[in-house]
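User: Hi! I have a protein structure encoded as tokens and I'd like to know what sequence might fold into it. I'm fairly new to this, so please keep things simple.
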């Protein structure tokens, strides 16, 4: 909830993005962290800006967090789709 509260306090929108390497080593960690291989291409996909009104009640923070997560997931899927099209 930190980014949501910070955006509310500052009035600044949240800008999020996803970086997807074309070729990477996948770490054996819980999050499957990716380490890009040398000289690989990386797709940068920006998510839709998330605006948080200054008067948003704390009870509605969860819906804004879900909105932000959905925007990041769409950016991730766009970057994966880019490499699928590039290989075709």
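Assistant: Happy to help. Inverse folding works backwards from shape to sequence: for each of the 88 positions I chose a residue that suits the local structure. Here it is:
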């Amino acid at each position: 909830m930190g980014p949501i509260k910070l955006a509310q306090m500052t009035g600044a929108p949240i800008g999020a993005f996803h970086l997807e390497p074309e070729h990477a080593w996948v770490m054996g960690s819980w999050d499957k962290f990716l380490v890009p291989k040398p000289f690989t291409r990386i797709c940068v996909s920006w998510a839709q800006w998330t605006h948080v009104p200054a008067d948003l009640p704390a009870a509605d923070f969860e819906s804004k967090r879900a909105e932000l997560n959905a925007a990041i997931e769409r950016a991730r899927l766009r970057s994966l789709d880019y490499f699928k099209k590039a290989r075709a």
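A useful reference point when you look it over: Helices lie at 2-10, 61-87. Feel free to ask if any position seems puzzling.
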